[in-house]
Design goal:
Blueprint: H1 9-41, H2 48-57, H3 73-89, H4 98-110, H5 112-121, E1 131-134, E2 139-140, H6 144-150, H7 153-157, H8 161-170, E3 173-177, E4 179-180, E5 183-186, E6 192-196, E7 199-200, H9 201-211, H10 219-227, H11 239-246, H12 251-265, H13 278-297, H14 300-307, H15 313-325, H16 334-344, H17 352-364, H18 370-381, H19 388-396, H20 400-409
Antiparallel strand pairs: 1-2, 1-3, 4-7, 5-6
Helix pairs in contact: 1-3, 3-4, 3-5, 4-12, 5-10, 9-10, 10-12, 11-13, 13-15, 17-18, 17-20
């Protein structure tokens, strides 16, 4: 068996060096193009402070296994604009379902300028949420000014990709993130207190823009900015997670948040030069499950059959909860799920005669009285067997167990 030839370390280094040099060479043209776009999208004189914040965000560093599109964030923003164009042209990775392709394409076509504004605003607070991670396992969460003070003067005045790569390697920086964790310590009284609140750059960015009076940004875009990170929290297709993040949003807000998440995910490249769509695909599965749950919960026929007693409300609730708690995409259609609910959620029927006969032995054993037996039989005859527990449970205590067993044995198969 022949051993594979190990990769040439110098070749890998040269390839990385060439990539950094290309980024540096293209940087002036890219920044000029992005700057012009910012001036077109945010033209008012009153928005000068906002434009300055956007331009400053171009220099936010990107280092680690995520965001291999470039060393600085201008490359990320530029790639998002390219991917918005790809969406509008209908160009998608093969794993994206056709219905989602159509939804993304229509939303992008109808909201192109809005989504371009979103592009420049969604990461505006990354610089305020930096976390620098080092090889020894330590981490530092500096302010933007503190980060600038950490950099060599040459790099601070001239953000060069290759120079930054050397600096990060020399400082043993392994990753740069944009979430600052909450810091909790015990005070003198021994009680825990929050010393520093956690900061997520999407949420922080939305708050910054709200403080500026929306600056012409719609509430839907603010929600997209606030929610654009949540795709990364979908480790599975949990409808419960989707409900937590999106249930309170309008249809427009959900759609824009979906486009925002997709464009952000496809513009964050791994070391392979391709995006990792796994979390986004989980979110699509969660969206699918959530919409199934909503459709069944609001189905008029199911509601009417519960009210008329044709369906057992408790059984229906369990079926709906199972969909909400499900963590994998359900390959069933709404029609098949309706059939399943109608079949499996019918009220349990009991043979009153069998039930009465089996209770005789419990009366003889002193477990229940003759009067209690008559009342239980009447409840079963009236279709109210499920109320036996609430009616007699407190009085009978552990003696309810044989009653429950008798009910089970009296079910009509």
């Amino acid at each position: 068996m022949t051993r594979e030839t190990p990769p040439n370390e110098n070749a890998i280094h040269d390839e990385q060096k060439l990539k950094l040099q290309t980024e540096a060479k293209e940087c002036p043209e890219r920044v000029a193009r992005l700057t012009q776009k910012v001036e077109v999208l945010f033209p008012d004189e009153a928005l000068q402070p906002l434009r300055e914040q956007i331009l400053e965000s171009f220099q936010v560093p990107q280092w680690g296994k995520h965001h291999n599109e470039g060393i600085y964030m201008d490359t990320h923003l530029d790639l998002i604009l390219t991917n918005l164009e790809n969406i509008q042209r209908g160009e998608f990775p093969p794993e994206i379902p056709d219905n989602i392709k159509k939804l993304l394409q229509e939303a992008t076509t109808n909201n192109r300028e809005t989504l371009e504004r979103y592009t420049f605003l969604h990461d505006i607070s990354k610089k305020d949420c930096l976390t620098i991670k080092f090889e020894d396992g330590t981490a530092l969460s500096p302010t933007w000014q503190e980060w600038q003070d950490m950099l060599p003067t040459k790099l601070r005045n001239n953000p060069d990709p290759e120079t930054f790569a050397h600096y990060a390697a020399q400082q043993h920086i392994t990753a740069i993130g944009y979430y600052q964790p909450e810091i909790i310590k015990k005070n003198e009284a021994g009680k825990t207190e929050v010393v520093k609140h956690g900061k997520m750059h999407g949420r922080e960015g939305a708050e910054v823009l709200r403080a500026l009076g929306y600056v012409g940004v719609s509430p839907a875009v603010l929600k997209a900015i606030e929610k654009h990170e949540v795709a990364y929290s979908f480790v599975n297709a949990s409808a419960k997670t989707y409900e937590q993040h999106f249930d309170s949003l309008s249809d427009q807000e959900r759609t824009l948040a979906l486009v925002a998440s997709y464009s952000d995910t496809t513009s964050a490249l791994t070391s392979s030069g391709k995006p990792d769509l796994s979390n986004f695909m989980n979110m699509l599965g969660a969206k699918h499950n959530y919409e199934l749950w909503q459709a069944l919960k609001n189905n008029e026929e199911i509601t009417a059959q519960q009210q008329s007693g044709q369906l057992d409300a408790e059984k229906v609730k369990k079926e709906l909860d199972a969909i909400l708690q499900n963590t994998v995409q359900i390959p069933l259609s709404i029609d098949k799920l309706l059939i399943k609910i109608k079949k499996e959620c019918t009220p349990t029927r009991y043979n009153t005669i069998v039930f009465a006969e089996k209770l005789i032995a419990l009366v003889a054993a002193g477990t229940i009285t003759e009067e209690q037996k008559k009342q239980m039989v009447q409840l079963v005859a009236d279709g109210q067997a499920k109320t036996i527990g609430s009616e007699f449970g407190k009085a009978l205590g552990k003696n309810m167990r044989p009653i429950t067993q008798v009910l089970k044995e009296s079910e009509c198969k």
